[in-house]
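*** Query protein ***
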Amino acid sequence: MPRHLKEWFMGAAAAVTCIAVYAIALGFFLSLTLLVASMEEGGGNLSDSAPVLTQAIILLSQGVGFSAGSVTLTLMPLMLTGLLIALLATLVQRLNAISWRSGTSGAVLWLVVMLLMANGLSLTLSDPLWLIAIKSLAIYTLGYSFGAIPRSSWPGILCRWWRERVSSRLRQALRSGFFLGFSILAGYLLIGVVTVLLWTVTNYQAMGRVFQLSGMQIGSRILTTICSLAWLPNLCLWATSWVFGAGFSIGDVGTFTLWTGESTSLPPLPVFGLLPSAVSNDTTRMTLISIPFAVGVIVGLLALLLGRGFAIRFVAPRDGRRGLIDMLINLAYAAGAFCLAGTVLALGAAAMFQLSVGSLGRQRLRHIGVDVISSTRAVGHPTALGLLSAWLLVAVGIAGGYGVRLLVARIHTRLATGPIDSPDTVDVEDAEDHKDHADADAANGRSAAATPRRLASDPKSVQSGSSSNTRVIISMAPSKEDHDEDNTATDTQSSGISLP
């Protein structure tokens, strides 16, 4: 088979295999659940409605709701959606359907099957065919991308292009921003999972009472609980909103926040027995609400100070102007990374909260889940404020440390150079120096006058003086002939005795 034909075939095979495996597994489970329910609860054979219900759940896992009589279900089971995307990605990798031909053929076949399934369904769908096509293509695109991108050559080409045209500092800032945003979002989802586990531990008895009031037997309880796991990610997202203060609601019959936990006439679904009551302790409520701010501060400080982050350090005056400029540039890139992290967190949280909401009816149960705007604000605003606080804390600390070090360096320089002399002090010291020099000159004159007589009495001292370190000045008295020839007048005072 030619290569291009094989690529067309592999893409279609991946799509068909994914739909078949998903539909068969889901259909068998629904048939078993309906069979056990009909056996334990009595009544007609409910297994006959399994094919129709299977088609409806396949479309519901792609965001297409349906109505059956007075029941309207648009609450997307995110667990089934994730399993469908993961199955498609795995088959794309196993069948090596990684090319534009494979992707195109798979998308066309996927779209055709979903439209045929929607058109032949006896239930009333909540969306028109064009919107069903868009939602189905979105799910297929996600699954195919997760399977094809890691095996294709495009990531390497894009990475090389990115490295060649973008500076290292900008790449690090963008990488840090995306990493921080997705990491914080994953941490918040983990908090939601832990919260649901705590609800289960503390409220499992209430869930058991709902089973007893509805009259379910053991088999029906087990299979109903397994069915409820399809909406477990939705409940985790509601729990995240509840922990951070925004809460969630079950239509008009129940509102659950940290301050209120009231519900009236809830549907007899056992999973609703796990829903929490209000938190009575004010300190606990304030602690839970402060979690996003604390996370933002801690994560921001770690990103600014750790070596794998921006590694911002104190700048000393000896580093010069270049070190100060580098530090300011690092702070600017860190600020940009924090802004990107806040944007990623807000967009990701808004998208996930939007996917987690839906309806179980047309009137009182028309809206189930969180308020997307208030929940996104409760998650995003405190986290962004924490990141900003961490940045300001580091910036102010560095500025203060630099100012202190600069002041200390100037004080040390002033002490090393000594005090500056005033003009009056200089004049007094100059006069004392002149006086000292005059006294020294007078002493030298007396010693010079005494030197000839000593030398005349001890001629050997001339020879011995050459070997000593003392400077010796020899002065000879002029002879009579020289004195007669020297007619220069002299003012030298005589001793008062003259020769005749």
Observations:
- The first helix runs from residue 3 to 41.
